[in-house]
Amino acid sequence: MSEGIPLNIHCVEEVSSTMDVAREMVAASTRVPFALLAGSQAKGRGTGGRAWASPRGNMYCTICVPEAMVPAEVMPVLPLVAGLVCRAAIMELIPGADVHLKWPNDIIHNGMKIGGTLVENDGTHLFIGIGMNVAVAPPVTDAGRPATTIHNIAEAAGVKSETVNPRQLAALVWRHLFTTVNDNTITRAELVRRFDAAMDKSLTLHRRNGAERGEETLTAVRLNEWGHLTVRKPDGSEETLMADYLF
Ligand code: BTN
After folding, report:
1. What single-letter DSSP state applies at residue 247?
2. Where is the BPL/LPL catalytic domain (predicted)?
3. From the CA of 114, how far away is ligand 1's center (Å)?
């Protein structure tokens, strides 16, 4: 049951990037909404055009949704919703798991990265890209934070890791996403509140300047009504970030 939207997941082996192949599928009139789940990616991409390491064993998925399906309340905070539904999916598989979010698009456990999301559009469709470390924690290649896996979290929580796989995770993300999108009562304020509550505010953050890590240490304070993040600087002053990515 996916809140009225039947599960429609296309599973493939290696692709270039699920973002690019999903766009080709839309052009070929594939029935939407759909999810494309790949075993690995040769050219996976992350935010800011960075490469996203995509070895076998993890979840590489793009969910394609017609823009018209997404309510006006949800659209401005869709990148935050992407993180929320990934977190909800992991916590459904591993009850009690200590999964948090790092603004704007990272899924975190104990300060380590579990995955990230990337939202793109082509004017008529939204492409919600999700990469989650299920079995493999790729080495840190830039100044980013270390990674962990959902299998590590499961084992620590006493859940057998073999019961957690990318297909099952994708199905749960699908269900949580469409439950949110189809909820006529949901407000932007509520979605922002949920993301704010799910953030790990104990993290020390740094601005991402290309591949460089900004020297200034920042801590997350709160989200404003549009989901922009106010951070506190070492001198106690605050600044609101709108389009930054953070280490
Ligand atoms: C980030 O930089 O944290 C976002 C990473 C998003 C990676 C996913 S993996 C599936 C989809 N295909 C891609 O090429 N990227 C996204």
Report:
1. -
2. 2-185
3. 12
Tell how far the Cα of 166 is from the centroid of ligand 1, in angstroms.
14
ipTM of the complex: 0.99
CA of 115 to the centre of ligand 1 (A): 8
pLDDT bin (cut points 50, 70, 90) of residue 2 is very low
Give the span between the Cα atoms of 28 and 51, in whole angstroms.
Answer: 26
Q: Which of the two residues, 75 and 1, has the higher pLDDT score?
A: 75
Which amino acid residue places its CA nearest to atom 7 of ligand 1?
A: 131
**Which residue's alpha carbon is nearest to atom 15 within ligand 1?**
45
Tell me: cis bond preceding 55? Omega within 30 of 0 counts: no
The DSSP element (H or E) to which 26 belongs, if any, is: helix 18-27
Q: Per-domain residue ranges for the chain?
A: 9-198, 204-241
Closest-CA residue, ligand 1 atom 10, reads 60
Judged on CB neighbours under 10 Å (0-12, 13-18, 19+), 210 is exposed
CATH class of 9-198: alpha beta
The CA-based angle 81-87-92, given to 5 degrees, is: 125
Q: What is the pLDDT of residues 50-104, one digit of tens each?
A: 899 999 999 999 999 999 999 999 999 999 999 999 999 999 999 999 999 999 9
